[in-house]
Amino acid sequence: MTWQSRRSVLRLGGLTALGALAGCSAGAANEDESNDRTSERATTAATTTAEPTATPDERRYRVDQRGGPDDLRSDPTVRAIDIPDYDGPAPYVFTPAILWVERGATVTWSVEGGTHAIAAYHPDVYRTRRIPEAAASFDSDVLEPGDSFEHTFEVPGVYNYLCQPHEMNGMVGLVVVEEARPGPGTVEGSNVRTTIAGEHLTRLLGIADIDVQPPG
Length: 216
Fold this sequence. Notes:
By secondary structure, the protein is of the alpha/beta class. It has two domains: about 1-50; about 55-205, Immunoglobulin-like, CATH 2.60.40. The chain has helices spanning about 5-45, 55-60, 125, 195-205; strands at about 65, 75-80, 90-95, 100, 105-110, 120, 150, 155-165, 170-175. Strands 1-4-9-8-6 form a five-stranded mixed β-sheet, covered by helices on one side. It has a four-stranded mixed β-sheet with strand order 3-2-5-7, with no helix packed on it. Strand 8 (about 155-165) and strand 9 (about 170-175) form a beta hairpin. The longest helix has about 45 residues, at about 5-45. It is globular, with a radius of gyration of 31 Å.
């Protein structure tokens, strides 16, 4: 091999080595950038507050709760909605299904799907009393989508209410005013006409951590 040939081989070998080094450097840079993105995502995930996970029972009945004994709301809104293509026991729901409010709060029910009628469980309206003894009953009559209904709660205690057309589907709700005092609204739900509504009322009391009293 001539000196010139050996020089060409060495030059080509050097270029190959430089190319390999450049490839390694680019790969290392890409790996570092990928690691940085992974670290950033992990940091973001770690600093994001996780949403509370609903229990299977809450998911099945579409139960949600707003407020609590130490977080009473004023002038809140409850949505009356339909759940399309839902094959569970409660395709029509109030959301939130459980609401804790201040004494004197006005609750607004907003109908956002289907036809609904909001009524207290009270003999003047719907046979069984499941609101405080001194409390006034309420009844919205039939509401169409886009309609709303308001009621002001003056008497502390637990109020059970229903959608009259959909009681058979378990469309019921609770409003707790000021505190969960024992009364008609804290009794186990077997005294209502529709079995699924009674079961759902009892379930709501349990989710709200309200002591359920035996019927009678």
